[in-house]
C-alpha cells in the first residue's frame, strides 16, 4: 500500500452521519505551518508517486515467472481505521485525479507488455540491454500477434550504434547510427505459451546530443483491448577529462 496526501476538497462529500474530523485536523496543522496553499500540490505529487510505485510493484510481480498472482488490499481509501489514504480511488470510490482507468490497465490487465532491464539511467555511449516480454494471462495464445514498439526522445535527437530489436527467430530491425527524434517497428510473437512470454531483446549503444529522456512504448493489440507500457530512460552525456 502506498499513501497519498489527503485532498481537502473531499470534506464536502461527507453529508451523512460520518464527518471527516481527521481531514480538518490535518488541514489546521498545514495552515499553522503556513503551507495550506501547497495542499493541492502535496496531494498531486504524492498521488502520482504512489501510482508509479504501484506500477513498479505490479510489473515486478508480472515479470516473476511462476508467480501465483497478486492482490491489492483495496483500491479505495479506507476511513474505518483512522486515516488510510492508500487507495487509487477515494473513500467514495471516486477518482483522485492521479490516474485513469486506461492508464491503470497498461500495467494491470490480463495481457501486459513488459521490458526487463537492470537500470533506467545510462550515460552517453553506454550499452543498453533489455528483454521484451509479455505477461499473458488472457486465456489464449498470442502466437502470430504483433508487438509494436515506439522510441521517442523528449527533447533533442538520439542515435543507436549497432542497435537491434530482435526475437529468438532472428534479428528484425537494425539501426545504423542515424540521428532521429523517434523510431518505431514491430516484433512478431512466435510463442504459443501462456504466462510470462519471452518476445525479444533490445541491444544497442545510445548516443544523445544532450541529456534527455527516451520513452519506449510497447503496444499489443489483443482481441478486445490494447495495452502499452512506457519506460523512461535518461541518458547523461559523458564528460571528457
UniProtKB/TrEMBL annotation:
| Listed InterPro entries | GH
Instruction: Identify the species of origin.
Output: human gut metagenome
Name under which the protein is recorded: Beta-galactosidase
Q: Which SUPFAM superfamilies match?
A: (Trans)glycosidases
Amino acid at each position: 500500500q502506498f499513501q497519498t496526501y489527503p485532498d481537502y476538497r473531499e470534506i464536502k462529500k461527507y453529508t451523512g452521519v460520518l464527518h471527516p474530523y481527521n481531514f480538518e485536523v490535518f488541514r489546521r496543522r498545514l495552515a499553522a505551518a503556513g503551507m495550506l496553499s501547497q495542499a493541492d500540490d502535496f496531494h498531486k505529487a504524492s498521488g502520482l508517486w504512489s501510482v508509479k510505485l504501484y506500477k513498479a510493484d505490479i510489473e515486478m510481480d508480472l515479470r516473476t515467472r511462476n508467480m501465483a498472482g497478486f492482490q491489492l488490499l483495496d483500491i479505495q481509501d479506507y476511513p474505518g481505521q483512522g486515516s488510510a489514504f492508500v487507495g487509487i480511488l477515494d473513500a467514495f470510490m471516486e477518482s483522485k485525479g492521479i490516474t485513469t482507468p486506461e492508464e491503470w490497465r497498461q500495467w494491470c490487465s490480463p495481457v501486459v507488455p513488459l521490458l526487463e532491464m537492470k537500470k533506467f539511467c545510462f550515460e552517453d555511449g553506454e550499452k543498453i540491454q533489455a528483454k521484451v516480454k509479455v505477461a499473458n494471462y488472457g486465456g489464449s495464445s498470442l502466437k502470430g500477434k504483433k508487438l509494436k514498439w515506439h522510441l521517442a526522445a523528449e527533447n533533442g535527437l538520439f542515435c543507436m550504434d549497432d542497435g537491434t530489436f530482435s526475437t529468438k527467430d532472428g534479428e528484425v530491425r537494425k539501426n545504423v547510427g542515424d540521428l532521429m527524434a523517434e523510431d518505431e517497428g514491430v516484433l512478431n510473437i512466435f510463442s504459443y505459451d501462456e504466462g510470462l512470454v519471452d518476445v525479444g531483446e533490445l541491444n544497442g549503444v545510445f548516443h544523445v546530443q544532450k541529456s534527455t529522456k527516451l520513452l519506449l512504448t510497447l503496444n499489443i493489440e489483443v482481441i478486445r483491448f490494447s495495452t502499452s507500457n512506457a519506460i523512461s530512460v535518461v541518458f547523461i552525456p559523458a564528460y571528457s577529462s
